[in-house]
Amino acid sequence: MSAKNAATLPAKGVWRGSLRTLLAVVMVSLLLAVSGVLIAIDFNRARNAAFETAEGHMRGFEERLIARMQSLSGETSGLVNLIVSIANSFLAGPDERIADKVTILRAALARSPQIDGVYAGYPDGGFFHAVNLSSTDWRTALNAPPNAAMAVRILNPNDGAPIGHILFYDAAGKQLLRRTVTGWDFDPRQRAWYRAAAGGSGPVATGPYSMATTRTLGMTISQAHKGNPEIVVGADVVLDHVTRFIASERLTPSAVAFVVDADKRPLIHSDRRLMNAIAASKSERDFDPSSMRDPLLEAIRAKPPSLDSMGLVEADGRRWVVLGSQVDSAILFPGHIAVIAAPVDELMAPAIRGLYQGLAISGAIVVLAILGALLLAHLITKSLHQLTTSANRLQDLDFRTPIEVPTRVREIASLGGAMNRARDAIFTFGLYVPKELVRKGLESGHFGRTARRQDVTAIFTDIYDFTTISERHSPEEVVSMLSEYFDILNDTVSAHGGTIIQFLGDSIFAMWNAPAADPDHAENACRGALSMRARIDAFNEKQRQLGLPQFRTRFGIHTGTAVVGSVGASDRLQYTAMGDSINVASRLEGMNKSYGTTILASGAVFEQCHDRIRFRPLGKGQAKGRTTELDLYEVIGVIGRVDEREPQALAPRPLPSGN
Ligand SMILES: Nc1ncnc2c1ncn2[C@@H]1O[C@H](COP(=O)(O)OP(=O)(O)OP(=O)(O)O)[C@@H](O)[C@H]1O
Ligand SMILES: [Mg+2]
């Protein structure tokens, strides 16, 4: 692998993508990690908060439900107990002391809308029943007058021919209407509430059952009168009050609340459909709750949660949070359990919404981060690309363009400054070393002492009587003229694919086919020499006009094998070529003096390109220090062109690609 390639590939195991991608990947990864952790923490917090909130709501709701049930039970049993204890008016028959009974009951019923009615059953089958007409069921059942607030139903056994009446009262207790009822077939002594309490002392609860008249589901608290244990006072509690309460508060859209009795049979349910099923079932002797086919109810009955602690049950393909609490010491609901259940997915909905919001916000942040990373990376990589372009220009030994890297990143700015200093250093260095040589060294990666045998074409030039010129002009003038002159030679040699290897006083040593390969090196060397001669003619014409000396120049060209490479001390190398072929080119340059020629080439050069370059044969000649003779040729011009003496730069044959 060449040094150039090795220098561009990153070391193994590091990032191989662009910086822009790297920055984006790093920033996005960091943001994803951070936002992921934050979202997870936030979601966890939100979930815990959701559960805590749910638990708080459920407990609060449960407490209110139980308090409602307890007050229901307490108020009802309290009222019954009051009547049996002090209301002697109830010791009188059903149609006696009615006004006293109405006075006691009117306020009580107005105060406790959940009490559907209060009544007394007599051992002779008589019956007194005060009804709260806030219930539409009763209004309809009794066909109550519009402003009636309370109705009193009286059944007088009348020695086997029972007579019934209904009296309607307004809210102030004024009697509005008295209606006789016939055919009323009702015997309180057959009712469960009577049988359960008659002869006893304490309150008893019966039910739930569908009320005889309104068919609504209710329960009864009844108690024997202290003055006559065969007279039983009872009060009906319509459970609809509890159902409406538990249906009024929905923790979540699908949350449910219900009450099961000590045998885990549902008594009250927030779901109206199930409540109707419960009500309908109360007339059945052995009601089987599973007939309600409610998966949640079944799941909770199968795995009742421990009381007062949050439990989880699976039902209907959902997970439910369940809280069950004992209703406690209520006469009406002994051993009953109030259960609240809410689906986890709904409880978690706020947390999940928060999660999605968090994900959306994080997504937006990640997108912004990507854009920011790309922008940042663009800012950085743009500068780095500019630096890379500058470095490539340096690698191509193009020192003309200063390295300007507009950047806000201090490190990059200092890198640009360092590269500018390196550019200046290399530029200075480049003044002393043929660019092509450095280029080839970069490509081949061979910089140390290297030497190899190959064919090359060498040109040596020399200025006539430069010593005399130097004698007649100040060193500053000589250097200035020589610099301009060498610029001409250097540009022209490079333009024809050659490389000036050395400047030797007033002469140069240029080479073709090394360090840059060139299959037409002999031809291009001749073209280069012709072009240099043309441009030196123009230079000399200018010198003449300025009254300055002319740099008449001799060229010697030879092609052959030489050892080419870097020689010298380990820290001070000189790239050059050595061998007989190079000496011949140098001798040919000097032999121009005796042949009166300008560009003298060897037979080897002629052999390489006599079909493209015009030569004038000069016969054989002996170079100083050599034993063998050389075939000598003057290089006249390019075949197919007018005389080359006209000052025109010859367009070099395009070098083969790959140089
Ligand atoms: N290899 C070299 N390295 C450095 N300077 C050199 C080298 N060869 C010659 N010079 C210098 O270049 C100048 C010209 O030398 P050169 O031998 O070309 O004589 P000249 O006056 O130009 O006559 P001629 O017409 O023979 O070239 C001299 O001042 C000489 O010191
Ligand atoms: Mg000279």
UniProtKB/TrEMBL annotation:
First-tier enzyme category under EC: lyase
InterPro entries, alphabetized: A/G_cyclase, Adenylyl/Guanylyl_Cyclase_3/4, HAMP_dom, Nucleotide_cyclase
Highest taxon above the source species: Bacteria
Domain HAMP: start-end pairs: 378-431
Any single Gene Ontology cellular-component annotation: membrane
GO molecular function: adenylate cyclase activity
Record carries keyword Lyase: yes
Coiled-coil ranges per UniProt: none
Keyword Lipoprotein listed: no
Gene3D superfamilies found in the cross-reference section: 6.10.340.10, Nucleotide cyclase (3.30.70.1230), PAS domain (3.30.450.20)
Ranges where the Guanylate cyclase domain occurs: 457-589
Name of the protein in its database record: Adenylate cyclase
GO biological process: cyclic nucleotide biosynthetic process; intracellular signal transduction
Keywords in alphabetical order: Lyase, Membrane, Transmembrane, Transmembrane helix
Organism: Mycoplana azooxidifex
Transmembrane regions: 22-41, 358-380
Pfam families: Guanylate_cyc, HAMP
EC number, UniProt record: 4.6.1.1
